[in-house]
Design a protein that fits this description.
By secondary structure, the chain is an alpha+beta fold. It contains 4 helices and 9 strands, in the order E-H-E-E-E-E-H-E-E-E-H-E-H.
Length: 181
Amino acid sequence: MREIEVKARLQDRNKTMKAIKALGCVFNEPIAQSDRIYMLPEYIGLATHQGNVLRIRVQNGKALFTLKRSITNELDCLEKELAVSDSAVMADIIDLLGYKEYAHVLKTRQKSKYKDYEICLDDVEGLGSFIEVEKLVEENIETQEQDKLFEFLAALGISKEDRVMQGYDTLVYNQNHMTDV
């Protein structure tokens, strides 16, 4: 499947949550997620994702392995995911394939659904609060879905200035590798 999403920083998390609940949405209990993100060394630090991005996510004592490949940008990706029984062995396999961990993202996520959208309110350690709206589409379809998803965010009161075009992994990497110029 192809995962298409939009993301924005939240200025007022409670106000946004109330606007979403007013649509009839119900949020799940907060889930702690620990994401370790891997790339081939030659792609680490580039302005945009290139090649495959691998992730091991641990939540609720379970591990998921995900491969993402950008199609038009970091938030429009081909995504393949499966459960793994041992995250340490999966990390060893990834290392043996030549990939290196470049970001560790810790967040608390609450999810809801609205029509065919998945809505995530995220509190990301070191970065703050965000909203993501995601939609899954067939892999080979040309789409302007990101524009439609942002229109949904705008209807919730999210401003264009708060839109984020990078994944949490890139935001964490950039924050951890900022240099004084």
